[in-house]
Amino acid sequence: MTARETKSTCPYCGVGCGVVIESQGDQITGVRGDPDHPANFGRLCSKGSTLHLTASATVTQHTRLLHPMQRLRRGEAPQRIAWDTALDLATNQFAKTIRDHGPDAVGFYISGQLLTEDYYVFNKLAKGLIGTNNVDTNSRLCMSSAVAGYKMTLGADAPPTCYDDVNHASCIFIVGSNTAYAHPVLFRRIEDAKRANPQMKVIFCDPRRTDTAEIADLFLPIQPGTDVALFNGMLHTMLWEGWLDHAYIAAHTNGFDALKATVRDYTPEMVASVCGLQKQDILEAARLFATSSATLSLYCQGLNQSSSGTIKNAALINLHLATGQIGKPGAGPFSLTGQPNAMGGREVGGLANLLSAHRDLGNPEHRAEVARLWGVPAVPSKPGKTAVEMFQAAADGDIRALWIACTNPLQSMPDQTTVRRALERAEFVVVQEAFATPATCDHADLLLPATTWGEKVGTVTNSERRISRVRPAVVAPGETRHDWSIAVAFARRLEAAIDGPRGLFPYEDAESIWNEHRESTRGRDLDITGMSYAMLDAAPQQWPLRSGELSGQVRLYEDGQFPTADGRATFANTVYIPVAEPRESRFPFSLTTGRLRDQWHGMSRTGTLGRLFGHVAEPSVQMHPQDMDRRRLRDGELVHVTSKRGSIVVPVQASTEVGLSQAFMAMHWGEEFLSGRASTGERLAGVNALTTSAHCPTSKQPELKHAAVKITKAELPWSLLTVAWLTETQALTARALLKPYMARFQFASCVPFASATPLGDPTDDQRHGVLFRAAHSDAPADAVLAELEAIVGLSDSEALRYADAQKGQRRTARLRRQGDDTLIEGFLLAGDTRAEAWIKTLLQNELPAQALGRSLLVAGAKAPVAVRSRGKQVCTCFNVAEDAIAAHLAGSVVEGAHTRSEDGLLASLQSHLKCGTNCGSCLPELKRLVRSAQPLKQAA
Ligand code: SF4
What we know:
Strand order of the largest sheet: 5-4-18-17-16-6-7
Helix content: 25-40%
Oligomer: single chain
Number of strands: 37
Structural class: alpha/beta
Distance between the termini: 58 Å
Low-confidence stretches: 936-940
Bound molecules: iron/sulfur cluster
């Protein structure tokens, strides 16, 4: 079979890296970075470089939704139906709801991972055909504060900067963004820029000392949610010190005097107290920002996911306007988009308050323009329901038919209790999805199978306004269809059923949709009338690119002209407002959420791959060690994390990254991976059971970044752990079979177990693991344990087993001969799990176990001397763990074989262990380990 290569785009984050997909026949066989793509020049991070492994035939067979399915009764398994039946059913249900209750009784909740063409059709379907603005997207959880902040100050939703600006900046201010994890390839570019220009200063401001801090010259460990106070305080200092660009303010802005009066109160002393920072650090941050020749701000969810997200964005942009740090190389505010196509969605107006080509729903002229473009009598003026409002309306019975596409609200939305109620109360729920595994699928009346990465065709726009082509490398599996095609087929049927305007959806391919979108941008700030698919095929392009132009605009506002009525930018009068739910005596911890390095969103794709669980293996809540000491909590113990909305049980982990009175949980853990059932019967599911739907009044973006919680020890004396190596098929099957067992315990987590082989190792196929952990107040029936054993392949008669059903004790080990060695293939410990650390190490590192015999079955048996954990995995590509790195560093320093400089030691690690030489995602962590090596500290 001939090998093929297809250029496309990574489907994960807003960096928008170009990829080259390798395929043979219907199978994707490899992926590498596209050396010609201007976002990444050939680089990929740990997520992007493993994309092909998430698209194997086995993963597709076990995790993908491949046929339309109807669930006749809720709670029962869905049945396969034909596409025509599925589309007729959806049409009849939506038409009936619209007829009986009006167009606002339906809602569409779509996704920043859809392509621009998909988005365009959904938007036109809701606003143009049905006559409701109830179309919103998970971008509401991601970028709507950035949109509102740009519009409030600069006049249009347009990031004025580009990635190349990191090479021209003399100061980079990273705030509310763990760029090292969330936008890794951009972080590599910052590392390169800093190496090339050591004089460049990096300020990093975040409540947590994440790996992004490794590049910082100045770290500001700010209290959660106090950013506006900091920005206003920096402006106060700039005013006081005479660091403002008064000429720029006079020539290009409005509204400075009111802001000046406001920031008078934000003295360094007051700001230091509110933000929990040192006064001199605030002064230094203000000095570097204002007096550097070019200052670039990079920011993300730390500003956006906030009940004051819009003014946080605006207060930061105020600093750029006041210092003239905008419209020149290396300077400006640069919002980093979380999702791959949050920008494209904004461009086509795929939010409840927007219209095509950055038009506003609230503007009658804009509505009339769009109605003319679409050939419909009118676009409704009533604002649509935004994400939080939409699920609340469904929970209240106001939205009766809900269409969810390419997103998993039962994992990603805050206040999961309300979302669950919404899905239960809605009369008809359609879920259009590529994967069958997201929790939301379990609540669908109708499941429509969609194509995904490697199969889709269309375009996406990344953070720097660059539009890239997405191309299919293989044919769509099963009966999957492109998202735009499903929406078009439904829309055509609905046109007839509701007697709406006809012929609105004439599209036969993605390009014809894109061409219509392109026409809608004519004369707008994002004008792309000079672009075509053919041009994008040759090279990705930034917008605007008007008719007759040869390339897109690299930077905006270089002439000081802004897209406002008088061409001037506007200072927003920003007043600091605390978080919606400040911590207090009953809920004394600030819970923040964020990304893991190797996972993406709800993990429907990355969560299929054990390799990506090497860096962080299981869910946990992180706390500062002093807070743990005060509460007599030990690493790994289970705790209840409780907010006003819900409670979950999760292991606690000590981390000095987290500040005092703060706690951190990764945003990824939904009920697919972390679950349980309270004694009251209530389902405990995922981190967003805790978060609040309090949202910014302007952007309507919820405050996913902060909730007040209490953390108390969970007294669950009976525990269980089972881990096993299986084939890929067996592991995926086992996880599916284990899912219903999670709700039987007060705590349960179920994850892939990390393979201990380097990327590309030929034994990878045999090393797919599953790890299931549970705890409960008392032991379950012995039969349940036997069922669990059977699921993970431990039930055969050859397995070593000890069982005491009376006491809920059970220990099982399955061994395998390999040459002269006997290796552990899987084990189960129930009741007493104290031996887990060393048995897990034996299994993960494939260490000989023949000498251990029945001691594997002894409760609380001590670790044999030779069995030592390798520590946490640092490098995913070459499976290098902390212990090996520490040993190498100690040897290098003692031998003096390398210079004692950090760069020298890093180079030594890279040449001997290979860590950090492939995707580079572990480089910040390697640098931290190098820096923390004791001899270096002494040298410093
Ligand atoms: Fe994909 Fe990583 Fe690039 Fe983001 S940085 S687009 S996740 S390869």
